[in-house]
Amino acid sequence: MLDPGIKPSAIVSYLDHYVIGQDDAKKILAVAVYAHYRKIAAAQRDDVEVAKSNILLIGPSGTGKTLLCETLSRILNVPFVTADATAIAQTRYVNEEIEAMLQRLLDKADGDAGRAQRGIVFIDEIDKLRASDGEPRSVSGQSVQHALLKIMEGSAVKLRNAQYLDTTNILFICGGAFVGLEDIMAQTRHYGYIATSASDDQNVLERLNARVKPTDLFKFGLIPEFTGRLPIIARLQDLTRDMLVRIMTEPRNCIYSQFREIFRNEGVELSVSQRVFEEISDLAIEYQTGARSLRGLFEELITPILFVVPDDPQVKKVEITSLLVEPTFTRTANG
Ligand SMILES: Nc1ncnc2c1ncn2[C@@H]1O[C@H](COP(=O)(O)OP(=O)(O)O)[C@@H](O)[C@H]1O
Ligand SMILES: [Mg+2]
Predict the structure, then answer these.
(1) Residue 249 in 3-state DSSP?
(2) I need a surface site. Which of 177, 259, 321, 324 has the fewest CB within 10 A?
(3) What angle do CA 30, 182, 9 make, to 5 degrees?
(4) Percent helix, strand, coil in the chain (nearest 5)?
(5) Ligand nearest to the CA of 68
(6) How far apart are CA 223 and CA 213, in angstroms?
(7) Measured distance CA(153)–CA(23) in Å, rounded
(8) Is residue 137 very low, low, confident or very high in pLDDT (cuts 50, 70, 90)?
(9) CA distance 248 to 254
(10) Integer angstrom CA distances of residue 283 from 21, 59, 243, 276, 280
């Protein structure tokens, strides 16, 4: 469980090692999980009920929602599972699907129900559960929202072997791209009693503008009870070219480090210029899949080189300066 010495700022610093950018979301998540585990500890001490605050992560695909939750669960050392709301909605047996998800959480906790009951469940594509007008799905998104609502509020769910898992203290994080939410928000963008004169602090106004209101989510198609269970909302931003470059080159275990290591094991130094990463990032932006296409693009570049290098022991260094220029091979005279 949460090391009592770990502060939200430390959680953010840890996230920074793995997740590029998304500073607002990191802070909101860090404070939320900190408060969550503090509340559980206090409840156990004083034997009181805790009101749980689950979290909604709104952001375009491939911007780090899953990565953030995964990294968070690692720092907190709690079991973590992800599920896909669309997959749940596509089955006729919604409750079985939800049970299977909680069973996976229990498995992740090596069968320790106490640990599983303090875990994190990330449910992605929650926006696909919007109340739809007669879509040919087995179950309507709304009924899935109701089913999820039950476990998010906290209930005892019967799993295999007649074992029960109490979901009261499980932290649920829902994620989705919510395409179209911006338009809904734009329609209801007014500040009420807050004047909007030139002297107003532009940052404060921008912050208010960026806030997603529960009413925006109803309009989008989430049922009010469901939104009510997600009081904490964090937004992730589109990744800029600079961030995409950093994703490939900075985090521990980033793509560049991984391939440098593979080449090192062949006795070869791999050197890829900044320009190459910028070119790859430009393509990734065109593909509109956030950071998702970075690995594929990088591997496409590296694969032909990695094909020939093991057959050529004299190669000591490979340099790539641009996607548009052939890589340079440096060889020793006799290897
Ligand atoms: N902000 C980020 N920092 C580092 N890597 C990222 C970031 N966003 C996405 N990625 C990488 O892109 C891939 C997809 O990210 P993911 O977290 O699954 O996106 P999402 O859940 O928002 O669709 C992952 O492999 C992840 O490593
Ligand atoms: Mg994801």
Answers:
(1) helix
(2) 324
(3) 10
(4) 50, 15, 35
(5) 1
(6) 13
(7) 28
(8) very low
(9) 5
(10) 20, 20, 14, 11, 5
3-state secondary structure of 176: strand
pLDDT at 198 over 70: no
CA atoms of 123 and 125, how far apart (whole Å): 7
Q: How do residues 296-328 score in pLDDT, each as one tens digit?
A: 999 999 999 999 999 999 999 999 999 999 999
**CA dist., res. 99 & res. 112, Å (int):** 16
Choose the residue to mutate in 67, 178, 293 for probing ligand 1, maximizing ligand atoms within 8 Å of C-beta.
67
Helix axes 255-265, 241-249, angle to 10 degrees: 30
Q: Is 156 exposed, middle or buried (0-12, 13-18, 19+ CB in 10 A)?
A: exposed
Task: Mark out the alpha helices in 19-162 (DSSP H runs).
Answer: 23-46, 65-76, 85-89, 94-108, 113-116, 141-153
Mutational test site, ligand 1, from 12, 15, 23, 63, max ligand atoms within 8 Å of CB:
63
Share of the chain above pLDDT 90, in %: 70
Rounded Cα gap, residues 19 and 75, in angstroms: 13
Ligand 1 atom 27: the closest Cα is on which residue?
A: 67
What residue has token string 């909604």? 56
- For residue 289, give the ligand nearest its CA: 1
pTM: 0.87
Number of residues assigned to the chain: 335
